[in-house]
Specification:
By secondary structure, the chain is an alpha+beta fold. The protein is built from 4 helices and 4 strands. Helix 1 packs across helix 2.
Length: 65
């Protein structure tokens, strides 16, 4: 696990990731659609740490208070 700007790169569910970005899971899914070919499919309920790292690279880091 690595930490970047207080955001830990680890496995997250769609709901956890959308909460980090402060949007609904439905809106977050829309944000991910253009990058699905690079990110890949979830492994069960979770995106893997590598997929989360790619999501952070594509969408930018979520704002942390």
């Amino acid at each position: 696990m690595s930490t970047t700007n207080d955001v830990t790169v680890k496995a997250y569910t769609m709901k956890e990731l959308s909460a980090l970005y402060g949007i609904s899971p439905r809106a977050f899914k829309t944000w991910l659609e253009p990058h699905e070919d690079v990110i890949g499919k979830k492994k069960g309920w979770y995106y893997t740490a590598l997929q989360v790292k790619t999501i952070f690279e594509k969408l930018g880091l979520p704002e942390q208070e």
